[in-house]
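Example with several molecule types.
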Amino acid sequence: MIRLVLPPHLRMLARVHGEVELDIRGPVTRAAVLDALEASYPMLRGTIRDHVTERRRPFLRFFACQRDLTHEPADAPLPDAVATGVEPFLVIGAIAGG
Amino acid sequence: MSGVRVLVGTRKGAFVLTSDGKRTGWNVSGPHFAGWEIYHLKGSPADPDRLYASQSSGWFGQVMQRSCDGGKTWETPGGVLDKTPEGFPKGESNKFVYDVSPETGKPLTTHQWYDGTQHPWEFKRVWHLEPSHTDPDAVYAGVEDAALFRTSDGGKTWMELAGLRGHGTGPKWQPGAGGMCLHSILLDPRNPKRIFVAISAAGAFRSDDAGKTWKPINRGLRSQYIPDPTAEIGHCVHRIALHPSRPNVLFMQKHWDVMRSDDAGDTWREISGNLPTDFGFVIDVHAHEPETIYVLPIKSDSEHYVPDGKLRVYRSRSGGNEWEPLTKGLPQRDCYVNVLRDAMAVDSLDPCGVYFGTTGGQVYASADAGDSWAPIVRDLPAVLSVEVQALP
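Resulting structure tokens for the full complex:
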């Protein structure tokens, strides 16, 4: 089971509290995690990656295991600790504004 | 009528304000969608409990929200798990995709960018929602970059009315300081095939065939900030309004100038008259007096606040040119707020109620057609839009 942490705005939109757990069959990649997330929570489609291009929204980052994975390829395997559910995969809204 | 419901969109959520027909005591509900920008929310004339809201964020993009119980609960249309016959989830919410050329598959057109080059259309957000007069599931959406979309399934899917961007003047449209947005949509209550829209900074447009084809309707506008002040395209229209009983008469608050058309936009004439400044954003028409109109003058395009520190609505009972300041109950010193283009509305009670919201977070109401005012709330986030429904 993959553990996913969403930023507060998206937790509110998806009406979830705390972490989201996702069951992924096959290689655990960022694309697979987001596919599974959007399949379970369709209201999140378009909020993390563009509807058409599937590119990451500019102000969002992806962290896991104390690493910034934002610029890793979407189909690259995520760390084993994420794939095995030891560590969560974090979607982070970039800090901005005043 | 049993009461009114005022729908307020702000920089940090939506609020629903309700009152009985006296409009003196108010109940405040919200924030809904806390932390999100709510550019606009509006109820269906065909079903007052059906509301639509545009929820957006610089981080997370556009989300559409719908309520079927007058704003008590909300849902994202298409945002629930809905399986195809093959068993796959098919949620399709919040998706606004511009049409492409059917011949080439390439973008339909480009628009003028700040540096004078041509730039592709890029969807950013929904500025304005205009529900159909007759069908609660049908809604028009005015978006940035400027285009008109329509849903006929209650907001699950949105299709572009691409004849607007594709009619030929698109490459001359350009963004203003607030972006290139389609912010005004007027549906002719007598002629379901007639639609008016306005775009900053392109101008006003009309369709007489339910949105298939469009033409610019900007003759008579004069804008000193464009190379040809009387050009067909390029005018920064801030808002247009009409009275349902006389849909051929249009009123316009342009960047500068308050304008009027008596021929459905074919020609315009200035009616700024004795206003202290003719810059502003909002304009609206009294619910029962088609010649009574309201504006809220703003000092200038470089000083986006009311002149002289005084918050004054101006009313004309003669269809323009002769204006009277309405000040009773409004702050008349040290006030420096703005009132944005979608932030004024009128109700259909008698006497007509008038409402507006400020960038300072106040929502003011008048239950006597503007003669006197009182704040409903004083300390909301900056107000982006105000709509009102008279409830049966």
